[in-house]
What does this fold into?
Amino acid sequence: DLRMVVGEDKNKVSNIVDAQTSLFEELYFNRLQLLSDFVEIQDDGTFSQVYSEQARYKHLLNLPKNLQQHLFELWNKEGKEKDLEEVFLQEAQDPCRTAFSINKCISNIVQKSSSPQAIKGIVTAGPLKATKYSAAKLKKMIKSLRK
It folds into this structure.
């Protein structure tokens, strides 16, 4: 998101998640149990993800369709493979490439919507309000970097 690059508290996500950890645990515990082949749940309630090729493949198949389509296009540029499952099975073999590609595709998806949204905000608010707002956000960002 363009706003996370400049002008946003760099700890924003951590601040939100850390304050809500117990609620997230309660919300997702049953779902994680359904994924017991791919998530190891410890006695103390913590969990860790299984990083096997099979687990990566399963997770790829459960991603949102929009993200799956972006990954398929990225990994199948030459058009050799026709089947999404076949491409994902092949790509699940390389954990580094899989992680890098997912991050790249998510960034592209978010950028397509966040950049026009930021520009619309500037135009709608007007130059003076946008400048004041941006200055306040930059100040907040710099403060978060000093922590």
